[in-house]
Specification:
With 300 residues, the protein is an alpha/beta fold. The chain has 13 helices and nine strands.
Length: 300
């Protein structure tokens, strides 16, 4: 047990929230817990350093720092501003630490509403899984004013192996959504690739063993991007024109087997667009430059 800390409120005892709460309680923190599903209080009834609150308002009345870890921004809105919401008991100087993954515009509106009350909000969504939540090894992605983040530092340090201050309010959530965007796409891409490989008659384990040892499976951020485009070098180790050729041959093979190479078709179209924009002779990692220029509104 560590030294005692000022009592902290935590609303949301789902998979992540419950794991975080247990870790903090086991570490000597005093918590005020709330969840709309009262059956979720049961695992915490044996803790002397834990109070079960009947509403978000009661939770806020008993603390000056409130953590929200909830499924959606609508749930956060209800907890903060709904009937029996925390807003009824929020005082000037209180701090809300919003750790959910939600809608950016709603987060920013919630921060503005709390600021009018003299309170502050920081966003601190986390990466990794319930296992890391239980061991205090999450990665916290934080947005907000430095002075507000400093007030939450001891709590974030207790929950996280690493804290990244991404920028002002909303930037922790922006970084989390970028991470999840890539992660979810990779889930679908990996599933498609392994299914197409099986449709091509390949042994699944042999395929996995290969992909785990090439850039295809290890990921470009651990392999080619740091060596090439992120160093400002787009000279061709493997040019985009060759990428188009290889993709086309793979897509053709899968089509003969009635395989629908969805991601391959999309990637080939984007490679074609990059080649037309003048990147064809450059390294495949120059796709970063293509997208940077496209999003900045430049012709190339």
């Amino acid at each position: 047990m560590t030294e005692c800390h000022e009592q902290v409120g935590l609303v949301g005892l789902g998979t992540m929230g419950a794991a975080m709460a247990r870790h903090l309680l086991d570490g000597g923190w005093s918590l005020v817990l709330h969840d709309t599903d009262k059956t979720k209080f049961a695992p915490f009834e044996g803790y002397a350093n834990c109070v079960m609150a009947g509403s978000p308002a009661e939770t806020m009345r008993l603390c000056t720092r409130l953590v929200t870890m909830l499924p959606t921004s609508d749930h956060v809105e209800q907890v903060l501003f709904g009937a029996e919401g925390a807003i009824a008991e929020i005082k000037a100087g209180d701090l809300v630490i919003e750790m959910s993954t939600g809608q950016l515009h709603m987060l920013e509106q919630q921060a503005q509403q709390l600021e009018k009350m003299g309170a502050a909000l920081i966003d601190a969504p986390v990466c990794l899984s319930p296992a890391e939540a239980a061991s205090g090894d999450l990665i916290a992605l934080v947005g907000g004013r430095t002075e507000d983040i400093t007030r939450a530092a001891d709590l974030l340090e207790a929950l996280s192996q690493r804290i990244i201050h991404a920028g002002p309010i909303g930037y922790g959530l922006r970084l989390k959504l970028v991470n999840n965007y890539m992660s979810m796409i990779n889930h679908v891409l990996t599933g498609e690739v392994l299914a197409l490989a099986r449709a091509a008659g390949l042994d699944r384990q042999i395929t996995i063993d290969l992909l785990q040892n090439t850039a295809a499976g290890r990921g470009q951020l651990l392999t080619n991007f740091p060596k090439k485009v992120l160093r400002g070098d787009t000279s061709a180790d493997f040019p985009i024109t060759m990428g188009i050729k290889d993709l086309s041959m793979a897509i053709n093979m899968f089509e003969t087997m009635q395989g629908d190479a969805c991601f391959g078709a999309l990637a080939r179209q984007l490679f074609d667009d990059a080649a037309k924009a003048g990147h064809g002779a450059q390294d495949c990692t120059a796709m970063l430059e293509y997208f940077d220029n496209k999003l900045a509104g430049k012709p190339r």
